[in-house]
Amino acid sequence: MKRLSELLFFGIVLLTLSESCKEAPKPSATVPKKVESKPNKAAILKSLLKSVPDSVETFEGMVWVPGGVFQQGAVNGDNMAMGHEKPSHPVAVDGFFMDVAEVTNAQFAEFVAHTGYITLAERKVNWEEMKKQLPEHTPKPHDSVMQPGSLVFRKVEVSNLQDFSQWWKWTLGANWRQPNGPKSTIRGKENEPVVHIAYEDAVAYCDWKGHRLPTEAEWEYAARGGNDNSIYFWGNAFEELPKMANTWTGTFPSTNDTQDGFELRAPVKSFQPNAYGLYDMAGNVWEWTSDWYNSRYYKQANDSGNLLVNPKGAIEAYNVGNPYVQERVIKGGSFLCNQSYCASYRLSSRMATTVDSSLEHLGFRTVKDLN
Predict the structure, then answer these.
(1) What are phi and psi of 181, to 5 degrees?
(2) What is the number of alpha carbons within 13 Å of residue 48 lying toward its C-beta?
């Protein structure tokens, strides 16, 4: 039987992968009362007309995503859409450059070699920081689980899919260098996406590159590739999934029949890109965005009646099912997504994760502005 402290730790650091049907008490000053102010016509025209000049500098490993207007959120006919993906609302974004694929192990290793950076998963857990996001008087977990580590997936037979701690194991020594624990390695996996990356790790890499994380709106707009009314980046045909993305094919979380060719993470660019030339915008690993997660943001965005221009998401974090933590939006789904549990290979899919979370299926890609 697991020690109480270990169970507590799982409750602190695991992703919130399902929505709560019961409203949690609202902490003070956490829900934004307004969204972006109504833009003037000049600002709208700027977003609609901005395109990359022929003479502009191009960046290795990135593609230009032209600006435009789209409906952010769930499309009609998407029966798997969750409440926080609705209602859809009009958004305009300026053009930007985006990495063609997720940041790889090789790219992250170069960053570490130049900077000496140590990821959050490689550091001892900071209880003083963690308890700020917990109810008052929450007991400190045992020191044995406060050592450097991260969450690793494990196959398991389950009778229900409600308790996701059944297939996640807090593993000491798991980090980006050892993605499956101390005996694992990234040798030979240099072209796989780097994982076990917390939000601050992704930001540190961006700062080093002179890039930034995409906003949620930018990420979804880029993933759509102009396919504004589709459920998936390739259209609406679910049966195309195994040849379009790395997901969990089989019975989750016990059996993966590898119909798509992969058991866990796949090398980047293993599947065809979308219309903008972007790879892995569905499946493989979840990707960080810069937006705070707020359960009510889409409704507030829609209620404003405004066309949101370059929105940066909610003013503050708030999750009705997890009101004590600070979470950011992640997009794209992962190799663990399955229709029976997490169909997050859909374009409008969005999930929340705490900024100090690192997991075996969580990575990132970067963007860069024209100017």
Answers:
(1) 115, 180
(2) 11
